[in-house]
Write a structure and sequence with these properties.
Layout lengths: L10 H10 L2 E4 L5 H19 L6 E2 L4 E5 L8 H5 L2 H11 L4 E10 L16 H6 L4 E7 L10 E3 L22 H7 L1 E2 L7 E4 L5 E3 L10 E7 L13 E2 H6 L2 H4 L6 E2 L18
Parallel strand pairs: 11-12
Antiparallel strand pairs: 1-8, 2-3, 3-4, 4-10, 5-8, 5-10, 6-7, 6-9
Amino acid sequence: MTDTIDEEIDVDDIRHRLRTDGFVARKGAFSREWVHRVREDVDAAFAEARGREGGAVGRGPNRWYVEIHPEALRGFVDLVDHPWVRTVCETILGPDYRIVEVGFDTPFPGAKLQPWHRDFPSPPETRDEGRLTSLAFNLTTVDTTDAMGPFEIAPGTQWEPGDDFDHEQFPPESEYARYESLAERKYPQVGDISARSALTIHRGTPNTSDVPRPVLVLGVDAPGAGNDAHHDLAVTHDYWERLPQRVRDHLACPIVDELSPIVQKHDIEGLVMG
């Protein structure tokens, strides 16, 4: 289920790429069969979420985000305990990193071009100290093509303070030409995983295909980053007892008798559907 590439993980390369580009990826980290099971769980979770109020939040026309509990993902432990994922977290966020988000973002056919944005305002640790305090891991569930609306990123923009951005997240249109000159489209294939700073300016592009492009999202914080306030992860007592201690050490969330459906609250104003 885990890394199919027999090579040493290059910590210096991870550090360099996240400091320069704000993005790093691992090809073939998971088997296609494992990802297909992830896709089954994502599809089931989306059907459940769309059937109730607040289960999914719009990120633009025909584009939805859904947060899920770890137990809804059969491969959760495989994902968070993957050697490359753990190494990236420890290298950038320190040994006491915290898993704060599990969800997925899906641009369906007809999804439109998003405005350039970052996922939340730049924190003081990044603006003043040059230190990243959060990471977003993305795992594609399809072989991405240009027609599917691939993710587009402007490398190096994670360090821009954003004081003049709308809501400190949306840069002015006067900067669009500069971002477009930097822009790189990403075409991950099934089994690949990436990590990025959510502060790096990015956007989703139009999905002109006839298929959706679900992407699993894993959000991880350095201690005290505070992004857990935007998420509602929880696990049951039985599930907690079955987790490896190495996973429990990084999962700071309520342990409950029974899970409650998550009502989405991580809106990104400017992307939410009206």
